[in-house]
Amino acid sequence: MNILGLVVFAIVFGIALRKLGSDGENLIKFFNSFNEATMVLVSWIMWYAPFGIMFLVAGKIVEMEDVVMLFTSLGKYICCCIVGHIIHGLIVLPLLYLIFTRKNPYKFLWGIFTALVTAFGTASSSATLPLMMKCVEEKNGVSKHISRFILPIGATVNMDGAALFQCVAAVFIAQLNDFSLNFIQVITILVTATASSVGAAGIPAGGVLTLAIILEAVGLPTNDISLILAVDWLVDRTCTVLNVEGDAFGAGLLQHYTDRLEKKEPVEELNEIKTEPAAATKEPEEEGTPLIKKDLKVTLEGLPSCEKESVM
Question: pTM for the full model?
Answer without folding.
Answer: 0.66
